Amino acid sequence: MSIDLLKKAIAGFSAELAATPDSDWSKLTKCDGWTVTDLVTHMVGGARSASAAFRGGSTEEAIAAGAGDVLGTDARAAYAASVADHIAAYESLSDTETIIHHPAADMPASRMLMFRIGDYLLHTWDLGAGLGRT
Fold first, then answer.
1. Taking the CA atoms of the chain, what radius of gyration do you get in angstroms?
2. Which residues of 72-81 are buried (b: 16+ CB within 10 A; e: fewer)?
3. Sign of the CA dihedral 84, 94, 106, 112?
4. Cβ contacts of residue 4 below 8 Å, gap of 6+?
5. Is residue 49 within 8 Å of 108, Cβ to Cβ?
6. Could you tell me the pTM of the whole model?
7. What is the per-residue burial (b if ≥16 Cβ within 10 Å, else e) of 83-93?
8. DSSP readout, the chain?
9. What is the Cα–Cα distance from 126 to 32, expressed in whole angstroms?
10. How crowded is residue 71: how many other Cβ atoms within 10 Å of its Cβ?
11. How distant is the alpha carbon of residue 130 from its chain centre?
12. pLDDT per residue as tens digits for the range 81-116
């Protein structure tokens, strides 16, 4: 599985997020019951959790990395930092078939990459369609 696919999926979500004014962050997305803020929190938490797992963290460390106030005082900056770190963490692997410890399950890093690609693709649609852009 190519890191290029993750980068493309991230670019799609990033474009939708860039098209979303701050005034719309309280609006609902197509993800049932989630506002834009909730969705971005999920994406940042997921990226941080996967990054911890890619770097050899335990399941507990991966959970902790994606928990709490992951957006801080600047949600857009938190998002940008999380995706940059997510890409760097995967690229730092010497073997993409290394078993990682993620909250979903222990799995090869390449499988987690597929999950993350799917998450970005799905939630790109949730964001754009929820705000009437797609």
1. 14
2. eeebeebbee
3. positive
4. none
5. no
6. 0.96
7. bebbbebbeeb
8. --HHHHHHHHHHHHHHHHTS-GGGTTSB-SSTT-BHHHHHHHHHHHHHHHHHHHTT--HHHHHHHTSS--STT-HHHHHHHHHHHHHHHHHT-S-TT-EEEETTEEEEHHHHHHHHHHHHHHHHHHHHHHTT--
9. 9
10. 18
11. 18
12. 999 999 999 999 999 999 999 988 999 999 999 999
Q: How many residues does this entry show for the chain? A: 134
Angle formed at CA 28 by CA 103 and CA 102, multiple of 5 degrees: 5
Q: Which two tokens stand for residue 129?
A: 């369609």
Look up tokens 């005082």; give the residue. Answer: 73
Which amino acid, one-letter code, is at 28?
L
Residue 48 confidence class, pLDDT cut points 50, 70, 90: very high
